């Protein structure tokens, strides 16, 4: 049986590798995480065959940067090989944020940096992001950015200038721009810049987006798997991939191998 047939028969292929590149832990005053405890979240993740998640911390996103980043990597230590961390960079306190990146960059679970311009109340084009771009460029880091076309502070359109200047860092466009207009912008970015990737989370409104995106991108190489757990139920995102009409090879690349090709924490 192929992957789709296996899932339709209630069987998860034992050799199917899955890494979730878009997850969150913790809480903040303005952003409640509805799901259970961390233990329960990890158990659910494992029950679905997700071997690891790459997370940022809501306390850091909510403004308490160092506290949130520390709690994140404490959790990485608590669940080694299961939880990997993205240090949150807040443009309102660039020095503190860069200190945190430097502090955790050699941690066994560090996989990159997360930014969220809307939650930081700072346009992606603002000069306060420049220290991050320069640091990420120098150290060839992966930077994940919340993107949503209808939110002016983090519309993906702003990445054309950024990616044109900084070509050594890798950029993951979380939610792929969020709206249909955002998808179109992200398609253009991926075609123009070889260091740009999109995560598939956020496409809950377009039932055949996976197939359409592969056709537009002329392949799956720049699509990575993300669920936005513990906000969202990861089963929805898994189903969109495994029950799609893509080939098994394409599904495996989206679910694991595309991200493993740019992140040395995961074996190819």
CATH topology: TIM Barrel
Q: How many structural domains can be distinguished in the coordinates?
A: 1
Distance between the termini: 24 Å
Percentage of residues in DSSP E strands: 15-25%
Overall, the morphology is globular
Strand ordering within the main sheet:
1-2-3-4-5-6-7-8
DSSP strand count: 8
| CATH architectural type | Alpha-Beta Barrel
Decide which structural class fits the backbone: alpha/beta
Summarize the amount of helix as a percent range.
40-55%
Question: Count of helical segments?
Answer: 12
- Helices and strands, in order, run as HEHEHHEHEHHEHEHEHEHH
CATH homologous superfamily identity: Metal-dependent hydrolases
The main sheet comes to:
8 strands, parallel
Could you write a compact summary of the structure shown?
Helix content is 41%, strand content 15%. It has 268 residues and is an alpha/beta fold.
Describe the model.
- Helices cover 41% and strands 15% of the residues.
- It is of the alpha/beta class.
- The protein has a single domain, classed as Metal-dependent hydrolases (TIM Barrel, Alpha-Beta Barrel), CATH 3.20.20.140.
- Strands 1-2-3-4-5-6-7-8 form an 8-stranded parallel beta sheet.
- The two termini are 24 Å apart.
- 47% of the residues are buried.
């Amino acid at each position: 049986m192929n992957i789709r047939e296996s899932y339709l028969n209630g069987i998860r292929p034992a050799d199917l590798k899955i890494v979730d590149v878009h997850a969150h832990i913790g809480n903040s005053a303005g952003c409640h995480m509805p799901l259970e405890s961390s233990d329960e979240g990890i158990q659910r993740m494992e029950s679905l065959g997700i071997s690891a998640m790459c997370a940022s911390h809501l306390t850091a996103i909510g403004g308490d940067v160092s506290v949130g980043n520390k709690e994140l990597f404490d959790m990485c230590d608590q669940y080694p090989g299961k939880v990997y961390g993205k240090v949150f960079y807040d443009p309102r306190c660039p020095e503190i944020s860069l200190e945190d990146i430097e502090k955790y960059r050699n941690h066994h679970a560090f996989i990159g940096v997360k930014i969220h311009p809307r939650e930081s109340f700072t346009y992606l084009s603002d000069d306060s992001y420049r220290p991050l771009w320069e640091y990420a460029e120098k150290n060839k880091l992966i930077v994940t950015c919340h993107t949503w076309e209808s939110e002016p502070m983090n519309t993906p359109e702003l990445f054309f200038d950024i990616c044109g200047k900084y070509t050594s860092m890798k950029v993951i466009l979380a939610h792929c721009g969020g709206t249909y207009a955002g998808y179109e912008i992200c398609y253009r970015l991926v075609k123009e810049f070889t260091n740009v990737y999109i995560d598939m989370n956020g496409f809950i409104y377009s039932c055949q987006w996976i197939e359409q995106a592969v056709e537009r991108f002329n392949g799956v190489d720049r699509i990575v798997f993300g669920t936005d757990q513990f906000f969202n139920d990861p089963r929805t995102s898994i189903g969109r991939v495994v029950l799609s009409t893509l080939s098994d090879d394409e599904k495996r690349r989206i679910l694991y191998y595309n991200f493993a090709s740019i992140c040395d924490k995961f074996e190819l």
